[in-house]
Amino acid sequence: MALIRYIFLVFSISVLSQSSVEIEFIIKEPLKVDQLIDANQFDGFYAIQDNAFQLMQLIGSTEYSNIQMGVITSANAFNPLKINLFYRDFNSAVILDNRLAEIIRIDFNTLQPFRMVSHISTGNDNTIWLYDQNTQQLELFDYLTRKTRITTLPIESHVLDLKSNFNFCWLLTEKFVYKYNYVGSLVDKFPNDGYSSIDENNGNIILLRENQLFLRKKNEAIINPIKHDGLLIKQFLVTNETLYIYDGEFLHQYQLKMN
Questions:
Q1: What would the CATH number be for the domain defined by 27-256?
Q2: Per-residue pLDDT tens digits of the chain, which is 259 residues long
Q3: Is the dihedral of CA 40, 45, 47, 50 positive or negative?
């Protein structure tokens, strides 16, 4: 009987602690892109349209296109001075500057040891985080010296998503969410409860599960749902505490209060 009361108490605490996160509507704008990547501080957006990477601003748009490298698998503009594009079919990456001019190209097929890369994201300095399917390891790779600075222990689960800032990297797998610091140490790990993608903002992480967003605040273990009025979520991102939800036709912006 005491055990039953204890289980009920733990369940009650868990339910009560999972309160919804309120968001405040800002604006809704029409938008037609294949993939929304990020927002910048000048009310512009990075996106992929017709396999070209674009910076869309009020004064006009700039784009980078390289059809010889195939389809752009992913892009990361966390550091607008060193944007990275990933071409999975060619096992290659391109680094762009803030004008979308090419800085450097990395062909992982020509490097030793050989890497079969599935995900990349921005690192600090002249580095990118990459996941090597051959070794099942996460690496912090210096693209100027073509050398690996850090390698983690093997990860025994299929990788779904990878996000980072200058200090930390979050790896979403089918079983767990891992958080590593810039020296490659595992500093956090928690079970993946059906999440399919992830984003981060100042150490806070936002997770997507079946068209529902969840917030896990920095240095907290509780994961709370975000109320968003049942919008269809084709993509989402968070920049400077602004939540962007793209439904394929409109871009919805909300103020997300982290405190």
A1: 2.120.10.30
A2: 444 443 333 333 343 346 889 899 999 999 999 999 999 877 789 999 999 999 998 778 999 999 999 999 999 999 999 999 999 999 999 999 999 999 999 999 999 999 999 999 999 999 999 999 999 999 999 999 999 999 999 998 999 999 999 999 999 999 999 999 999 999 999 999 999 999 999 999 999 999 999 999 998 999 999 988 788 999 999 998 899 999 999 999 999 977 6
A3: negative
- Bridge partners of 31, per DSSP, are none
d(CA 225, CA 192): 15
Name the DSSP class of 13. Answer: H
Contact (Cβ atoms closer than 8 angstroms) between residue 44 and residue 56: yes
pTM of the model: 0.89
Q: Where are the domains of the chain?
A: 27-256
